[in-house]
Amino acid sequence: MDSKLQDLIQEQIGHEYYSSYLYLQMASYFESTNLDGFAKWMKVQTREEREHGDKMYEFLQDRGVRVILRALPQPPSNYTSPQDVFEKTLEHEQKVTSLINGIADQADKVNDRPTKVFIQWFVSEQVEEEKNATRILELLKKIKPDSGAIFQLDHHLGKRE
Ligand code: FEO
Question: What is the pTM of this model?
């Protein structure tokens, strides 16, 4: 397997586990502000990110590449409002999208067919990730943080499985 492509996926495993870590930190913020539905949504997100990292781990191992885990940075823990959290979530997902696209570009460049197929799932997943964060952010922009509407949204987000 092309060494640059391997390296990009090794790094991406770290980015996915970091995403899991970041969203758990955000869940903690929501729990501390009594928005348990938002916290639940973030905890589901945490689990999904862990699964993304696991998928990449399995893929590399299946290709005969030994995974070497990278150090994770400490995620930011200070947030000023739910809107602030979702602005940062969207920003983070946009960054992840560009990293995934970088892997897809390198797989195309070296014509690694298994990686081209594998990474396609993540390309589509990023469309969902950005869409979900954008929708919630747009709703948050329309409501005042201390209005009843925030609790309705909290209730709705808490239904995520
Ligand atoms: Fe694994 Fe949120 O992208």
Answer: 0.96
